[in-house]
Amino acid sequence: MNKIIFLVEDALEGGFTARALGAAIFTEADDINELHGNSRAAVDCHFEPDAKPKMIRLHFIREEVIAA
Questions:
Q1: Does residue 50 surpass a pLDDT of 80?
Q2: In the structure, what pLDDT confidence band is assigned to residue 65 with cuts at 50, 70 and 90?
Q3: pLDDT tens digit string along 2-41?
Q4: Which listed site, 32, 41, 51, 61, has its alpha carbon 20 to 30 Å from 13?
Q5: 29 — phi, psi (to 5°)?
Q6: Are 57 and 3 in contact (CB under 8 A)?
Q7: Whole-Å CA distances, 8 to 14, 33, 53, 58, 67
Q8: End-to-end CA distance of the chain
């Protein structure tokens, strides 16, 4: 596996939640720097060193509500 993709959303209570596609990995963070570290740590815990992806991609999903 060359890369793993996390779908990142704003958490209701603030910060972010991130869920990996194709792997049972979930993490959360209060800010973007913490999200980077938590994503790396989650990937390190989930994969054996020889199977670990070389790249982590964070795909941000943002929802905006506007008046009609």
A1: yes
A2: confident
A3: 999 999 999 999 999 999 999 999 999 999 999 999 999 9
A4: 41
A5: -160, 160
A6: yes
A7: 13, 13, 18, 6, 25
A8: 44
Alpha-carbon span 5 to 23, nearest angstrom? 9
Is residue 63 within 8 A of residue 7, CB to CB? The reply is no
Asked if residues 43 and 52 have their Cβ atoms less than 8 Å apart, the reply is: yes
Would the pTM count as exceeding 0.90? no
For the range 20-28, what are the long-range contacts, defined as Cβ-Cβ under 8 Å and sequence gap of 24 or more?
A: none
Q: Can you give the pLDDT at residue 63? A: 85
**CA–CA distances in Å: residue 37 to residues 18, 27, 47, 52:** 12, 10, 16, 16
